Amino acid sequence: MSAPYALHRSLPSALLLPKPTNAHPHPQFSAKMFLTLSTSILPSLSQKYPQKVQFIFRQQIQPWHPSSTLCHEAAAAVLRLAPGKFWDYSKTLFDHQKEFFDVNVVKETRNETYKRLAKLAGSVGVEEGKVYGLLEVGDKPGEDGGLNIGNGVTNDVKVMVKVSDDMWSGLKAACSVVG
Hints:
Elements: H1 12-15, E1 23-26, H2 31-48, H3 66-81, H4 86-95, H5 102-105, H6 110-123, H7 128-135, H8 154-168, E2 175-178
Antiparallel strand pairs: 1-2
Helix pairs in contact: 3-4, 3-6, 3-7, 6-7
């Protein structure tokens, strides 16, 4: 899918939008919904209402699935490195989602999961090594002696969580329609 649908950016200036007053949340955004949206709804809206409808894909981490954070971090890395590939990568993640369900990651380290996620990014044309470079968590304390050093997209994830909390005030919607 082309970049016009990938309007979401992991930068505070793009994410910190006013709280919508007429949002309709859908808490079960799924691969099926994504496929329907990307193959039917968005192309149709683009033809019918060119330049009048904007779709913003905001990532919603599901903290009850630990690997959800890792997948969203990988998407944030792709978004930072190659914004035009974000939508393709999102589709690829949905296509491969079962590979990252709890039982399929429980026996690997966090960095091993990141390597698999970076390899998927490579499959859509984003440089695998650069994606992994943003995701990898080191094993040495930070310069200040800190042990929770995060990775290259930790601040992006903090923005995602902040925007989600601000927008929904406790309601964790995975998909919403404003308008």
